[in-house]
Amino acid sequence: MAQGYVEGLGLSYEILPLRLSGEAPRTFRADVYRANVIAPVLASADSSGSALVGLSLEHLRFSGERPGFPVASVTGLLPLIGYRQRVSPQLELTALALPALNSDLRDVKAADLTWGGVVRASYRSSARRAYRLTLGYRQQFYGPQYVLLLGLDWQLGQRWRAFGDLPTTFTLSYAASPRLAAGFNLNGINTAYRLQDRNRYFQYLQGHYGVFVEAYLSHHWALRATAAYSVTRRLDVFEQGDQWPATIDYIGLGNEPTPVNPIVEKGPAFKLALSYRVAAL
């Protein structure tokens, strides 16, 4: 049952053991909680088109001694609304609006809101292979973020499948049995949160490469455990006007802003996720 999929519902918990660099390095941790749901509504009579509504929640909480690192917790709330249209048996088009409220929630105001959107084309070239192209734009506290994702879902054989939207996600999965799979995955994140303190912002950027094992509890429900390492990691606070000129997905372009906190070193991450999945186009 390892396959390319979309998640109708997802819940996850992640632990990040962290270490501040410097002459007297300190260790602390982040606990990351995520929940997301998306569902089609108001489908057309022939089911070729439907509106999409959804909601994502992310909460990061930091604990332990961390001198010079002024963040206790941040929260992101991301509503989603869009429309999906199947143009032909091979081609599907989707447009999504992506507003977000990202904040430490100490003084919520309009400045915590950002806006964005993406359009996506999905094309199935054969029963074993499909491609996706996603283009979009999002306001971020670290500067403008342009979205350019190249997606693939490729059934490589009876047991192997590769799928994802590069450069932010990629999975290579091996189905050991109808209910058990294992493999390699990449997960990239680049988001930011406004802080009450002097309107600074906190950037959370990661590029985690890891291995996973997952069990299908039923036809749609899957439980996955992942152990990963951060090839790229940024957990930093910046002054309000110190921004990237632009980013493409999680790749910064131009002069890099300077954090006000000690550098957080690269390190491991451990994640447990439960999801309800349906097959992707």
TrEMBL record:
This is MetA-pathway of phenol degradation. The lineage of its organism: Bacteria, Pseudomonadati, Bacteroidota, Cytophagia, Cytophagales.
